[in-house]
Each structure stands twice: as structure tokens, then as C-alpha cells.
Amino acid sequence: MKFICGPMATISHPAFRILIEQFGGCEEYFTEMINAGTLLTGGQFEKYYIDPAPVPSKVVWQLTGHDVDNMKAAAVRLAELPGIGIDINMGCAAPDIYRYGAGIAWMLKDRSETQAMVHAVRSVVPEGKRLSVKLRLGDDNFTDAVFFDFCDMLVGEGVELLTLHPRTKKEKLVRPPRYEYCQRLAERYKGRVPVYLNGNVKDAASYKNTISRCPNVAGVMISRAAVQKPWIFKSLAVPEPVEGGNLMSLSGLTRQSINMEQISLEYVDLIEQYQPPEFHKTRLQRFFTYFCQNFKFAHYAQTQFVNAAAKGNDALRAAIKEFFAKCPEERCHVIVGLDPTIYFKNLHDN
Questions:
Q1: CA nearest to 86, candidates 41, 119, 155, 133
Q2: Using alpha carbons only, what angle is made at residue 338 by residues 335 and 342, rounded to the nearest 5 degrees?
Q3: Where are the beta strands (DSSP E) in 180-269?
Q4: Rounded distance, CA 305 to CA 296, Å?
Q5: Angle in degrees, CA 172, 292, 22, rounded to 5
Q6: How far apart are CA 280 and CA 286, in angstroms?
Q7: Residues with Cβ < 8 Å from 172, sequence gap 6 or more?
Q8: Between vectors from CA 248 to CA 244 and to CA 251, what angle results, nearest 5°?
Q9: Average pLDDT per run of 10 along the chain, which is 350 residues long?
Q10: C-alpha angle 333-227-86 in degrees, rounded to nearest 5
Q11: Other Cβ atoms within 10 Å of 270 Cβ, number
């Protein structure tokens, strides 16, 4: 089973990939959405979106846009970059993206227009590069026939991999994903086109449940949970605990000490190194909104860090140091076993 780090706006950039790699990494990293029109017009920030560091061979460039010509021309540019290939975003249901005619709008447009766009992009993706599509189930009134026919069209046009977030356009994250569609899709194209599952995998229990329901998917894409727990890919790859949860009895089990203060401060440094000053606030606020969920005093930490980030990076560094000075028990953790959420142990308890 492959592990894939999903595309997230303000998160899926080199600084975050470096953080994930420090904990062993994963097989693929999807970038945040790259707007076709902005890429072609040479926007001042585009160089930051197409930086493949630190592992160019693992990068998948996710492309978004609203018209055929720009999508094709932008695909030409992205195909020249290192990496696994290009992914067309047909899954983003954010209102501003949908109204722009991008994201999930491609699933709801006249079929001929969408087919023409996929055909155009496919024509410029060279041999050795993969073309994939990330999609949803469609609008709230979708039918099985329409959904699977749409996927057949994608495969017929040369799409080599599908990533399904099994929710509709309006379904929120609180609604359980319809995993059965991931399994049905994987069975439909078994031996021809691999299918990745995306949605609500956040720990050992949800991963085990997902795989049991979708045994034929080729990979699991994890997004928000990877921001909270950058070590999640490593933790899910180790053996399951023995009955009773006595993890120390497992041969070959590793224990890794995690200094949460050091990680927090180093991430600020990474953002400064790999992102323009104009992006610092939003990227740091988004990261710490999730990362602070690791702490016992999560809401307090989140409030302090997010507010400080609005005042500048030095203010954020000061807030981080102050938090860990007040809450030293939050500083060091040991990752043990399959799920760090369950098996965190504070160092002072050992």
C-alpha cells in the first residue's frame, strides 16, 4: 500500500515536505493547486509553487484552471519539471474555485468540454510522466451511472491514475466518506488504472477500517492528519501492537523522541527559507492550527501561536518558547507503535 501526502492550499510546499521527510517521508507528494493562468503569465510567486525541493522525484504537480487552452499550455510547462507527473484537480469544491470554473466544476460542465481538456493535457504529457485526476463523486444529485461513465471517459482519454475523495460537491468533512465507491472504482479498473483513496484517514484505527473496506485501492492519501502528525506515514508502516497493546514486546519496534518545541521553531525557519515574506503569516497560521492539536492544552497553544504569527515570525518564536516554558510537559514526546495519537508517552513518565 502506498502512502501519499495530499494537496493542501498553503501547506503543500517544500518546507512541509522537508518536515515529512525528516520522519521517513512517503511515496508521493501532491503540490497545492497551481493555477494555469497565473503560471503562464509569470506571476511573481509562481517560482515558489513549482519548487520541487527536497525530493523532486516524489512530486506530483497539481494543476487547476478553467479553460482548455490554458490547461494545455500550463501542462507543457509542468511536464518540463522533475517529478512523477501532473494531476488535474477536479475535486476542489471551494466556492471561489467552483465559480471560477475550476476544481469540481470540470465534473459538472458539458462532458465534451471536460473531455476536450483532458485530451489536450494528455497530448502534452510526455512518456514517462503520469497523468492523474483527483475527483469527487460529483454534485449532490449524482448517480452511479453518471459517475462511473465520467471515470470511464477519463480512463479512455489516457488518465493513468484516479484519486477519489468519496464525497459530493456539498458534503462536508463531518459526513462519513462513501468508501464503497473507492473500492468499486478500484475493482472496475483492476490491473489497468490504480485508484488512491482520500478522506478521513487520520490514525491507525481509521487506516485499518479504510483498508478493510477498500482492499483493492493502490494507495491512501493523507492530508490534514499529516499536518498534525508529520510522522503519521512512518507510524502507520510499523507492525500492529500485540493483544493488550504491549508495544514494547514487539521485536524491532522503534521508539523516537520528538522535541515538539524544536520542530515548531525549525518549521518557522523552513518557512522563511522556502516561502516569500508575503506568505509567512498564512502558511504558519494554517500549519499551527493543525499541529497544536497534539498538545493537551491545544486550544491555548493554537490561540497563542496563530495570534503571534499575525505579528511576525519573531513574535511567533517568542510565543512558542513561552508556551513550552509554561507547559514543559508538552515539549518532548516519544512516538511508539502504530498510532502516535494513542501511543504518545511523555518523557517524564518514563
A1: 133
A2: 65
A3: 195-198, 219-222, 255-259
A4: 15
A5: 100
A6: 10
A7: none
A8: 110
A9: 96 98 94 97 94 98 97 98 98 94 97 98 97 97 97 98 96 87 98 96 93 97 97 77 42 70 97 98 98 95 98 98 96 61 35
A10: 145
A11: 19
DSSP lists the bridge partners of residue 4 as 28, 221
Q: How far apart are the first and last CA of the chain?
A: 34
Phi, psi (degrees; rounded to nearest 5) at 286: -65, -45
Residue environment code for 47-78, b if the CB has 16+ CB neighbours within 10 A, otherwise e: eebbbbebbeebbbbbbbbbebebbbbbbebb
Lookup: cell for 317: 518564536
| The residue type at 156 | G
Cell of 195: 485508484
**Cα 135 from chain centre:** 14
Alpha carbon separation from 154 to 100, 162, 193 (Å, rounded): 22, 9, 11
At 228, is the secondary structure helix, strand, or coil? helix
Name the one residue in this structure whose C-alpha cell is 518514563.
350
Q: How far is CA 138 from the centre of its chain?
A: 20
Query: How many helices and strands (H and E) does the chain possess?
Result: 17, 12
DSSP, collapsed to helix, strand or coil, labels residue 108 as: helix
| Residue 346 phi, psi dihedral angles, 5° rounding | -70, 140
From the number of C-beta atoms within 10 Å of its C-beta (0-12, 13-18, 19+), residue 115 rates as middle
Residues 224, 300: Cα–Cα separation, whole Å: 20
Is residue 105 within 8 Å of residue 138, measured between CB atoms?
Answer: no
Length of the chain: 350
For 62, the grid coordinates are 497539481
pTM over 0.85: yes
d(CA 137, CA 168): 5
Residues 6+ apart with CB under 8 A from 16: 227, 230, 287
